[in-house]
Specification:
alpha+beta, Heat Shock Protein 90, 3 domains, five-stranded mixed sheet, 10 helices, rod-shaped, kinase activity, HATPase_C_sf, His_kinase_dom, transferase, membrane
Length: about 450
């Protein structure tokens, strides 16, 4: 089915072509009328000069008419000549016409042209002086042909512009897709649908930019706070030791080491995230048992979870090996499972399954859940969720919101994906999927 824009284009081209055809028809008809009028005036002037010259040469109309008859001039024309006394002179009366042919051809004096010689009227004449013109049917066919060609040309130009415009809109839609989370959308064919889609995407991008700008401003404050606190402690301890010339005691040195570790971890996370996002993160892949790694990780996390009464369960179909960076994947699962333990009420479930050439790890908790409007921003840098969600968590949240973005980038580096589903006050499920074996070529 044609779109409304294409119908409008067809109608525009048709109206333009019809208007041009009518203009061409009227213009050519006017040109023929002007040409016929000029031709008629010229012929009348030449005929007037010719008859006056004949009259002057032969002295009277009788001799002039005889010469015209002998020369067989005006035999095939409808020219009629009268004397100054209104006597018919040409054409002459013939025996074959049983009636006065001249009398039957009398023309009103008002339509006659006067013959003047040396300032005296010597007679009058009349006749039809028309040139051969293009017949109206042929003129209409010619105008229709020109109009059809114009219609084809105009419609082709409009279609080309429409195609170019449509490609531009699709290109814009494709480029806008990079600025928001991908989702399945029905194909847009009409201009109105594409323009509405672009408007929707631009509005979403504006909202996201506003959120990112807010996060950026708070990020600077958070990083400054995280760095200022350990630096202040270290400076105070060192200043006191140097001023009083007192060696640092072991507990104080241990405290300084903890602060240095915090700063190193923060800077390491930022550097790791930057490398992953730029595609320069180096992966050291090898074959290892995913189930064994998860069992070891679960046993370590279960020690801390027992204090809060949260059970950690691992379900795996079989023990199979994957080709990946074990340390990077361990970091991913520490972040995901650690978040689940932080918000769970009583249980965290980890399941491992095999599908085609990929493995799927699902981490589910029965915690407070995540609000729907928060899900698209979980993997943004420095996004720490709403105040309500942070209050609902077990313990205080001291992180800067880098854990999930790093986990997402590490999984994408393994050509995998992380999907999140959640219901508020019911729980959250993270599903991690990546290929068992993938070797970059």
């Amino acid at each position: 089915m044609w779109s409304i824009v294409r119908k409008r284009s067809l109608l525009t081209a048709l109206i333009t072509a019809v208007a041009c055809s009518l203009f061409i028809f009227v213009f050519i008809t006017w040109l023929q009328f002007q040409a016929n009028r000029d031709y008629e005036q010229q012929q009348k002037m030449q005929t007037e000069i010719f008859l006056a010259s004949y009259y002057e040469i032969y002295g009277n109309w009788e001799n002039a008419i005889d010469k015209l008859q002998t020369a067989k001039l005006f035999q095939n024309s409808d020219i009629q000549i009268w004397s100054s006394t209104n006597q018919p002179l040409w054409p002459q009366k013939t025996v074959d016409h049983g009636s006065d042919e001249i009398g039957n051809r009398n023309v009103e004096e008002s339509r006659r042209h006067v013959l003047i010689l040396n300032g005296q009227v010597i007679g009058t004449f009349t006749g039809t002086f028309e040139r051969e013109s293009i017949p109206v049917p042929y003129l209409m066919i010619f105008s229709f042909t020109i109009g059809l060609l114009l219609f084809i040309i105009i419609y082709s130009v409009i279609l080309k512009k429409e195609r170019t415009h449509r490609q531009s809109l699709k290109k814009i839609i494709t480029q806008l897709a990079f600025f928001e989370p991908p989702k399945h959308e029905k194909r847009q064919d009409s201009y109105s649908d594409m323009e509405q889609l672009i408007e929707t995407k631009v509005n979403k991008i504006a909202e996201r930019l506003y959120l990112l700008e807010t996060i950026r401003k708070s990020m600077v404050a958070d990083i400054a706070h995280e760095l200022r606190t350990p630096l202040t402690v270290m400076r105070a301890k060192l200043d006191n030791s140097l001023r009083n010339q007192i060696p640092l005691e072991l507990p104080q040195a241990s405290l300084l080491q903890d602060e240095i570790y915090r700063m190193s971890k923060l800077l390491g996370d930022l550097q790791q995230l930057a490398l992953a996002e730029s595609g320069h993160l180096i992966l050291h892949k090898n074959w290892f048992s995913l189930r064994s790694m998860l069992e070891e990780l679960t046993s370590l996390l279960a020690i801390d979870s027992k204090e809060s009464g949260i059970a950690v369960r691992l379900q795996s179909e079989e023990a199979f090996r994957v080709y990946a960076d074990e340390n990077r994947l361990r970091q991913v699962f520490v972040n995901i499972v650690g978040n689940a333990l932080r918000f769970a009420r009583s249980m965290v479930s980890i399941s491992v399954s095999f599908e085609s050439s990929s493995c799927i790890i699902t981490v589910t908790d029965d915690g407070v859940g995540i609000e729907e409007e928060e899900i698209p921003y979980l993997f943004e840098r420095f996004y720490r969720g709403t105040v309500n969600r942070r209050k609902e968590g077990n313990g205080s949240l001291t992180g800067l919101g880098l854990g999930l973005p790093i986990a997402n980038e590490l999984i994408e580096a393994h050509h995998g994906t992380i999907d999140v589903t959640s219901r508020w006050q019911e729980g959250t499920t993270f599903q991690i999927k990546f290929p068992i074996y993938y070797e970059a070529t």
